[in-house]
Prior knowledge:
Layout (H helix, E strand, L loop, with lengths): L4 H4 L2 H4 L4 H5 L8 E3 L14 E6 L3 H16 L3 E2 L8 E6 L4 H20 L4 E6 L5 H10 L5 E3 L7 H11 L3 E3 L7 E3 L10 E5 L1 E2 L10 H5 L3 E2 L2 H13 L4 E5 L17 H11 L3 E5 L8 H9 L6 E3 L7 H6 L6 H14 L4 E8 L6 H14 L4 E5 L17 H24 L5 E9 L6 E6 L4 E5 L8 E9 L4 E5 L1
Amino acid sequence: MGDTIMDEHDIEKYFKPDLRQARKRTRNTSERIDFLLDEKDQNIGSNRTFFIHTYGCQANEADSEIMAGILNALGFAQASSESESDLIILNTCAIRENAENRIWGELGRLKAYKRHNPDLILALAGCMPQEEYVVERVLKKYPHVDIIFGTHNIHRLPDYIRTALFSKEKVVEVYSEEGAIVESVPKLRAHAYKAWVHIMYGCDEFCTYCIVPYTRGKERSRAREDILSEVRELKNQGYREVTLLGQNVNAYGKDFKDVDYTFGDLLNDLDRIGIDRIRFATSHPHDLDRKTMEAMRDGKHVMPYFHLPVQSGSDKILKKMNRHYTSKEYLDVLGQLKETVPGISVTTDIIVGFPGETEQDFEDTMDLVKQARFEGAFTFIYSKREGTPAAKYPDETREEEKKRRLQRLNELVNELYLAGSKRFEEKTVKVLVEGYSKHGEDMMIGYTEHNKLVNFKGNKSLIGKMIDVRITKAMTWYLMGEIV
Ligand code: SAH
Ligand code: SF4
Ligand code: F3S
């Protein structure tokens, strides 16, 4: 291995990301490799500390645990605050403009920081560096950033750190195309009782508004045995809950050649391991099949909660979004799901103000939300992402109008949220205790099987335990309860 990154790779190809290249999809099955740490790197971080800021979705949270695991293996210790750390990583999100604006602000703030501590290493990681314009802007305007890498090369972190520490060179390495699936990566998990488990990477859906297929590459599934052994090990270590991660978990296994093994099969196998709770995120309605629903119904440990993004209730808009379903098809799938898994709690994601959305299209969304009776929703105003097809669609709706739609939608969503919580009043539910509540010294919080947040009186000896709680009152965002 050479000492600098530039020796090893074709600069032309790897220096900066290329969104057109990132859009390409091949039929090749991804190679599987094991992460190996070079002996000479094992102590390069000793007497040094790191701090990671994580933005965006659960995939990023899980990736940050891998970065932390690798840094730990290099000898770095995790700092409790950024002010006392020698290395700061921003693991970024590119999903909407406001997510990116936060990062630009952070980069500005950290500049002043670096003036006080010139030895501080600053790294930009995650989805933003996968965008061409971001890398260019950082190189031009934020020269205090030492390392830039993307979502496909986290396993190369030891090389980047070594270069930044010893050669004092700037490292810029972003792959536009996904590489191998890397197994045996060390992880420093953020929680002691619940764990993220990637089951697949990437997305092939290409919803016209979305940057993720470009920043995360093509869909590729981890091998069944790798996932099963990770979950078995977690159970042995005392973990009580796993959340299976993928941009579209229902596409799991579709990239396997000559093997018929899909998400429902995986759920069945994982259920047999006997870890208390299995959750997953997120799903595309188009790929949700009967096998998955039946695995939820039959599994003892698969939680009765489903996040099923709908995005819009207008067929015209759904088509322009490239979502592959109509509002009726969505409601049909949802109906089947509720019939198969009685009492299931369903939440969703909705975008308002997509280019060309009329008042009537928005009313169609309101109607669908009423019919679906979602128990929660993440709602967003459409944000233009350069490089995606929708960025070129004419958009005539005024910003104030979009805000008004969002507000109306949120009022409806909040009503349904409360109704979904009220159904648990006077019922006794199972809660996995997570920690202290912000509602007072002796108040604790945890989540129910239906993924509802509960506040109750208790103490820290309960953390990590599964307890019975009787719900006394439903508030909009959480439940109040008493230990039975
Ligand atoms: N793969 C996940 C979504 C990840 S992004 C899924 O399909 O379920 C999370 C949510 O962000 C999406 O569901 C969508 O509602 C929203 N989103 C994505 N791109 C957006 C954009 N350009 N503007 C506004 N919201 C967007
Ligand atoms: Fe984005 Fe659509 Fe893929 Fe979800 S399914 S990540 S919204 S392209
Ligand atoms: Fe954001 Fe990347 Fe996740 S864009 S939502 S961090 S996949």
